[in-house]
Amino acid sequence: MAIAVVLATVGFGGRRAVWESRRTWGEEDEVRNSVESRSVVINHGIPTGTIHRMKTAAAEFFKLPAQEKKKYPYDPNVLEGYGTPYPLSENESVDWSSALFLRLSPIQQRKLELWPTTPPELKDTVEAYSAEVAKVNKKLLGCLSLIMGMERNALFELHEEMSMLLRVTYYPTCCMPDQVLGLGPHSDASSITLLAQDDDVTGLQVLHDGGWVPVKPIPNALVVNIGDVMEIWSNGRYKSIDHRVVTTVEKARTSYASFVAPHKDVVMEPLEQMLDAQHRHGMYHKVKYENYLKYVLHRKLEGKAHMAKYTI
Ligand SMILES: O=C(O)CCC(=O)C(=O)O
Ligand SMILES: [Fe+2]
Asked: How many whole angstroms from 273 Cα to the centroid of ligand 1?
């Protein structure tokens, strides 16, 4: 069975953490059900205070006058800074959002001059949040490795020097929500993405059976998207999720996406463990992560059209 997507919502006080034991993840029905219903509720363990402080600091930054925010212009070479960096989708004349990109890891690659100094607590707050997200990521990759029939640390190691980028996106209110998207359709150039969002505004939508389905926020939860890297590694068993963000008239929205990706020199290809009797050959071409990323970042946001280049 091709597992379409793992779009996991990670919440407090819900079901037991799916990564807690191999058995939970290993139970076929559990995994299949979670995947088919497109949601897995897990306790991520990030203190609510840490998420709250992250959201407050980000809100302070986005409230600053434009000329203040522009002191940290987005630099496409290091993928950090403030701006509206994506090329627009075919049907869009404007993406109704702006974003602050910060490198969480490797720490030594951070370009700190692109980290806002207002509000002053932003840097420490991002550090605290990113340390927690990194823990969730490690656990999640551990579980995914197990259900893919590998050692717990296999996916973590496949990333080699793992990269984590935070994209905080602010979507202002919009008086023509039918005509303007906050962010065009795309799949993430990550292995997985861990996304926190505002608790009281729905904006994210995922493509399911040809229609856009809203992902209603669960307070303090994280949404986990499967990205293109995992699609290739899993030989298409886990498909990256096509998603977009709509605008609303009523309320501005902010989201916090942590993208996990391999080192730029990692050559991605379907993992041996994912080749079975039915799929004896890899369904994706080999590609260096750096080359894939260059290709994707220069394209318009057109859902998963870019994946055609890598699919056999
Ligand atoms: O705002 C969201 O909920 C999604 C953001 C997103 O898809 C992205 O940053 O790649
Ligand atoms: Fe995304």
From this structure: 30
Question: How many Å apart are CA 261 and CA 193, to the nearest integer?
Answer: 9
> 195-236: per-residue pLDDT in tens?
999 989 999 988 877 888 888 787 777 888 889 999 999 998
Asked if the ipTM is above 0.85, the reply is: yes
First to last CA, the chain: 19
CA atoms within 13 A on the CB side of 92: 24
- Atom of ligand 1 minimally distant from the CA of 193: 10
Q: What is the pTM of this model?
A: 0.88
Q: Which residues surround ligand 2, an ion (CB under 5 A)?
A: 188
Other beta carbons less than 10 A from residue 219's beta carbon: 11
Q: How far is the CA of 93 from the centre of ligand 2 (A)?
A: 19
Nearest ligand to residue 181 Cα: 1
